[in-house]
Write a structure and sequence with these properties.
about 10% helix, nine-stranded mixed β-sheet, about 220 residues, mainly beta, 15 strands, single chain, two-stranded antiparallel sheet
Length: about 220
Amino acid sequence: MNRRQYLAGAATIGVASLAGCLDVLLGEDLEFEASPGRVPDATLTETGYEHVRTDSRTIERTLEAGGESRDVTATNQHVEYGKQVSVGGMDLGDAHPARFMVLTTPQVSVLGQSFNPIAHLSARQLIALQDGYSNVGDLDSGSDAQVTIAGETTTRNTFQTSAQMAGQSFDVLVHVTDAVPLDGDLVVTIGAHPAQLAGEADTLRTLAEAVEAAE
């Protein structure tokens, strides 16, 4: 069975209502794998960001309805970028205090139930997916803004918190977008930067609005 086919149904995250289709044989276990998203090289050059890592993470669930059950495996793709910036004279070594992640996940409905591995993740859990910051503190909500990703208007939620990087602690602003469809998957972007570098928020917006499906 093709891993990129989908059951008829809808998956919902934030304000987005999204659907796909799949012809499924009864009793068959299902596997779905998202394709990576990316930021074009030209935008990375313009903003000073560079690719840091790409990895995938798999979630397994058993969904039951109407006396039927399916074991479902979904694989998410994480593509992360970073930029070295100065943070108040701190020695951060080769760390990238300005971070941007493109997270793609399959949009699937099985037995009438939505299966979206990131639908129930909190902002804190999404932030924890990135590889740069640790010991993230309580999140204080900030302002929300509208951004356009892959031709879809969505909300970018901004939070302020404290975090550590390379053994140094400082305040951080985090920007998390609600999901939109991207080439049959769902895409969420997660950006973070030192709070004292407020202008970096506009740069992260530029990265978010440039996101596209990887070729």
